[in-house]
Amino acid sequence: MLVGRHHERQQIDQAVALARSGTSATLALVGEPGIGKTALLGYAADQAAGLRLLRARGIESEAQIPFGSLLELIRPALAALDRIPAPQAAALEAALALRPAAAHDRFGVGAATLGLLAAYAEEAPVAVLVDDGQWLDPSSAQALLFAFRRLVADPIAVFVAVREGVPSLLDGADLPTLRLGGLTGDESAQLVELAPEAAARLHRMTAGNPLALLELAPGPPDLALAPEGAPVLVSARIIRAFLQRADPLGQPARGALVLAATSDTGDLPTLGRAAARLGIELSALAAAESAGLVTLRGGVVEFRHPLARSAIYADASASQRRDAHRALAAALPDRDVDRRAWHLAAAAAGPDETASVALEQAGARGRDRGAYATAAAAFERAGRLTAQGERRARLWRDAAEAGWLAGYTERAVALLGEAREVAAGPGTTAGETNPDDPAMLAGIDELAGQIAARCGPVMQGHAILTAAAERVRRPDPERAVAMLAEAAFACFYAGDSARMLAAAERAQALLPAAPSPRTRFLATMTAGMARIIGGDAATGAREVHEAAVLAESSAELREDLQLLPWLTFGPLFLRQAGGRVLLAHALRAARARAAVGALPLVLNLIARDQAATDRWAVAAATYTEAIGLARECGQQTELTFGLAGLAWLQARRGRETECRDCAAEALGLCGRLGIGLAEVWATAALGELELGLGEAARAAEQFGRLQRLLGDLGITDADLSPAADLIDVYTRLGMTAEAGRTAAGFAAAADAKGQPWALARARRGQGLVAADTGFAARFEQALELHAQTPDRFEEARTRLAYGERLRRARNRVLAREQLRAAVDIFERLDARPWADRARAELAATGETRRPRDPNTVDELTPQELHISLLLTSGKTTRETAAAMFLSPKTVEYHLRHVYQKLGVNSRGQLARILADAAQPDG
Hints:
By secondary structure, this protein is mostly helical. Among the domains are: 6-179, Rossmann fold (3-Layer(aba) Sandwich); 185-232; 245-332, no CATH class; 857-916, Orthogonal Bundle (Arc Repressor Mutant, subunit A), CATH 1.10.10.10. The strands form two sheets. It has a five-stranded parallel beta sheet, with helices on both faces. It is globular.
């Protein structure tokens, strides 16, 4: 009986009505045990009559069954699998053991779950009800949360009930939430048949908890005699009430109840076989049913409330529980191998190799299906059940890897520490090699280094990886090269040029005589990047070009998911107009394979490239997506780079608040994680912001800080130097000597690198400080070099500087030509402060240029712009939905908003409006 709850019922009614009208709604119900969450879900099911109903309930003892809750929930919808993208369908089928296992990105199952729910709702509105969400298996919880957070325009109402104070899928989810309190006094009196004074006293003592009211209403003597105002532990009272119902039962019924409480399915045939092994008559459960503790129906025994089950299980002796687990393990059908493994583990009183092997096999099955959280728990428990040290170390390493892939970084690091302690053996300290098994230690440290490189402190990752590479350099030089490439990448994050170059050179030294294409690519790209950052830039550029050509010619390299970020480095480091095929491929591959975990890094790198071309609006959208996914995936390093990159872009656009906010958050993360390169970017962003705003002195302060930072890091790459901006700043401040010295030094660095982007900026600097008779030649050289790069902003800055000098030389005709071009580029890019400066210079020549009308495209949100670009590039609605991890109806919802904002009604019209924004990469 549902009493009261008028507000809660209204919220449920509204959610169901939204689903009926074609809009998504999600509502979380949170409260203490017995507060009425299940009753409200029942009300929701009644109100959703006529909707397609999907239901699941978390069971505490089933929390280690991979994707068990997800399968229970979506089983009725599986017929719609053929209507979602093939990669998503394959990921979901593998996860649910509907096809041979194939490991995949943990978020891929979430994307597939969203696609399946949306497809199932295409025929009729859907209601999704999840009870006891705190006990969902972690893999199911992650997939469902990923889907629920992205529901916008599908006719789906989601209701999730979780217990207050217990970790669940709602933690940090920011979903609409109803926190349930107790019933009012009048509502409590309606629920229990007691005299008004007794009902009021009971209400005060239970705070209106419905289950407590019902269980305590019969009035145990101590409750009636308790002094007014005495504290009552409601959960303890409820548990005691359930146990008091069990006390009068005979030993056969108590034994059957313990067996039923130990079972995670309540399947009566299985319980019958287990009971026979224990000499228990299962028919004794009839007495427990009469006592109101359980119900028997449909071949299943169900406890009246989860607390009743917990009370019976906790009240049994440890040996009685172990016996029940052992009997159930033997009674389970052959298909329930995972359940058998966990029952065997629970039955163990010490080391147990049989249980350990069974759990190891369960962990391998979970890992192969992408249930990484479940696999991590199975491997860890298997390690604790074995007496074999080498096997324990390997199992804990496997547990750490699965935990890392599941997003449990801290637990993964702790497990690696335990694994290393076991593998190193007594008396062996960190950094020493166990001569009996160096490969085991190397495998442990390889993962530890990768985690540190991605999560910080990043240089700790470098130290671990370089040491691990030395252990395997003789038996497995190709693996050592790969580790050293990862170590160099950690240095790239940290901005530590010296150690990056050392790691890269060591990788090249370890190359075998006939390396695989993959190893050769990694060694060559790493060496090129390291030399550009802090060594011989010209040689580095040649090596980066060589590695990019190798990748372009090898399908095997391009399809290697782990290499996707590396494919983007060539275009980024060379900054040339051509050779951007690998950028497009990397993004397409990551999206097509639902590699959500790989996307933040790939998106950050591609956004950096877009921001260095004329695709600023697209770059902002890409950065925004990268930042959002990095937050969701818990990737702090990629979050830092996304924020720093977006700050730099917003500085050029003159968006002061956004720039300062992003830079501040990025700099805070840089200090904590040791990410020096992102600190370089964020500091450069603040300098460019001040320069664009006309605050030359403040800009000089920021660029001076940047110079000192680069010096501390040993970074000599001309592309990262603030020299080109400092020449501009010094010129404005009248510091001609400083401007001249800076221009000369920068020209030498650019000449040494020999790449057109650096050379163009250097020639501009020389033009700014040249004598009146020689500046034109330098600016003309700069413009010729700019034509070889994709960066139109730097070209516009050169034209602005050229026009300013021409005007001061009283050559107004030629000045206007350059300044008009600069205004056009700045306005097309939406570089507002720079457009204002160029228009002011043009006005000084006697020609007035009215500011262009605000670009209506600027009114689009980053997600709306990204969807628009994908749709106008030729992708269908379903393809766009798959790429953005949205549902087709959500894409259509955003497209309608785009049409309204831009005043268009067709994709053709939309494409024409977006003509100035280049088409996306993937």
